[in-house]
Amino acid sequence: MAGVALLLVAWSTLPSPDGVIPSLSDVIARGWEMALEGRLWFDLSASLWRILVGATIGIFCSVAVGILCIVPIVRASLAGLIELTRPIPPIAWIPLMLVLFGVGDSAAIAIVAFAVFFPVIVSIILALDSIDQDLVLVSRSLGADWRFRIQHVYLPSMTPTLVAGIRLGIGIGWFSVVAAEMVGSYGGLGYGIQIASLNLEMERFFVYLTAIGVCGLIMNAGMLWIGERLTPWRKGNGHVE
After folding, report:
1. Region label for 60, one of left (φ > 0), alpha (ψ between -120 and 50) or beta (otherwise)
2. What domains, with CATH codes, occur in the chain?
3. pLDDT digits over 172-185, tens only?
4. Among 66, 138, 182, 241, which residue has the least CB neighbours within 10 Å?
5. Within the chain, which residues score under 70 in pLDDT?
6. Can you give the pTM of this predicted structure?
7. Gap between the Cα atoms of 215 and 179, Å rounded
8. CA 166, CA 188: separation in Å to the nearest integer?
C-alpha cells in the first residue's frame, strides 16, 4: 500500500514529460465518466468473462493431462511435446486462433486456455515428483485404500505447488487476453486500450491501464487467499509449520 501511495503522490505532483501523461485528477474524472456511461463496465466484464472461461478450460485440460501423466509411459510420451510447445509465447498463437475461431470471444478464450495450460501442467508434474513416497508406503502399510491415499496423501502434497501453478497461469492468461483483445476482439480492456491509443485519448488510455492493473492485483490476492485456505498448515512465507 505504501508503494501504491507513493506512486499516486508522484503522479499527482511530478510534471508530465511533454504533457503526454495526463494528470491523476483528469484520469479519475475520465474514469468516473466512463463508469457512468457504462463503457468501462462493459469492457471490464468482457475481459473477466474471457479470462474466467479460458482459465477454467485450461485448468481442466491440464488436470486431465496431469492425471494421465501418473502413468510413466504416458508421461514419457507427452514430455517432449509439452517441452516443445511450452516455450512458445501464447500471443504468438493469436494469428492461428483468429484463423480457426475468427474475431470475437472464442479466439481470446482459446489464447487464455493455452496460456493457463502450461504453467498448471508443469506444476502438476512437479507436484507428482515432490510427493514423499515414504508417506505413500506408510499409508499403504497401515491399510489405507486408494481413496484415502488420494485425499490425505496425494492432494495435500500436491496442493501448494498446484495453487502456485494456477496463480502463475492466471497471471499469464490475464495479459494474454489483453493482448488478444487488442488485435482480435470487439470489446474488452485490450480493445479499449487499442481504440484509445489510436484516437490519442490518453485519459481513457490510462483508465484502462489502471483497470488492468487493479484487476490483476485483485486476482493475485484472491489466489493467495485461496492458497492459504487450501493449505492451512503452511504460513504465508512458504515455510511449513
Report:
1. alpha
2. 24-86+96-230 (1.10.3720.10)
3. 888 888 888 887 77
4. 241
5. 11-12, 14-19, 234-241
6. 0.80
7. 15
8. 23
